[in-house]
Structures are given as structure tokens and as C-alpha cells.
Amino acid sequence: MTVLVENPTSTRSRDPKELLNAVAPHLQHLTVNVLDSGLTVWEREVALLLRDAVLTRETAERILGNAVMYMVASMEHPEVHIGVGKVVDIGVHQVILDTPVYFALCDLYNGGEYKHHAPFIQRRSDGTVIRTADFLRSIGFDPDEELWARDGADCSPCDSKVPDSH
């Protein structure tokens, strides 16, 4: 008899929109603020990006999708050192700033544990961003080549030595 053991933090879908919308049942804080508009979690984050940082819906969705890929990958694979460039980091920061959504993301994809985001001040130019895009592909994601190549040599690194940081 063969027994299959699944990693409980592993996700089946690789669609960033599905991954982000899946956090809705895990929202525990300020749910009126997050859910009162009737928007999905994905639509809410896109609207916030459009309000604060990004000029077009297409760009906001591209940035958010790649940010979700990165955050889920960092939670599923804490042993792998990955990092983002300036553009994708806009989406990472958007989700983290919407703390009820970020807490729910951690709850669902990081075993309920908070995942710190502790970037260093100095950016690195060691190819981490390109290696991250390659890693995302290797685990079933479809990273946006243009977004990752743009900052391919300019990473906004976090402390990989801290086990709960990305």
C-alpha cells in the first residue's frame, strides 16, 4: 500500500487571484473594512494599488499577481532564499499594509504563523530577482518575465537568516 503525505502548507492552485481570494474565509480582523465593499480580496487589493501607486488596472493586476506568487512561495518554501525587485515589491507592500488580508494570508499559507517582512536598506545586485523568477516557475507559477527582468539585478532583499522573514 502506498501512502501519500501532503504538505499542509502546500497549495493546489497556482493562480495568484485564486490564492489571494482563498484568504477571505480566514479574515479575522476589521472584516467590515475589508469586506464591506462587496469586492473580492483580489479586487480590493487591485483597487488599493490603483488608488495609491499604480496607473493602470492591467499593471496593478500584473504587480499584484507576481507579489502573491512571491509571498506564497516564501511561505511554502522558507528554506529557499528569494527576493523581489522594486516593481513587484509595490504589490508585496500593498498586501502587507492591508494587515487583515496579510494576517489571513499568513494564516492560510504559513500555518497560522506571522511571516515578517524585514528588508535591508541596501539593495543587492547578485541576481536574486532572476533566480526568484526561475524558482517560481519551478514550483508551478507563471511569473511575468517583464516585471522580473526589469529589476533582475536590483533586489530588495530581506533577511534570509531569520526563519520567519521574507
The Rg value, from CA coordinates, equals 15 Å
The topology string of helices and strands comes to HHHHHHHH
User: Spans of 5+ residues with little confidence (pLDDT < 50)?
Assistant: 1-9, 159-165
Question: How many beta-strand elements?
Answer: 0
Tell me what the structure shows.
With 166 residues, the protein is mainly α. Helices cover 50% and strands 0% of the residues. It has helices at residues 16-21, 31-35, 41-52, 57-76, 86-97, 99-109, 128-138, 145-150. Residues 1-9 and 159-165 have low confidence and may be disordered.
Entry summary:
50% of the residues lie in helices and 0% in strands.
Throw out a few tags for this protein.
about 170 residues; mainly alpha; disordered N terminus; disordered C terminus
Question: What's the SSE blueprint?
Answer:
Blueprint: H1 16-21, H2 31-35, H3 41-52, H4 57-76, H5 86-97, H6 99-109, H7 128-138, H8 145-150
Helix pairs in contact: 3-4, 4-5
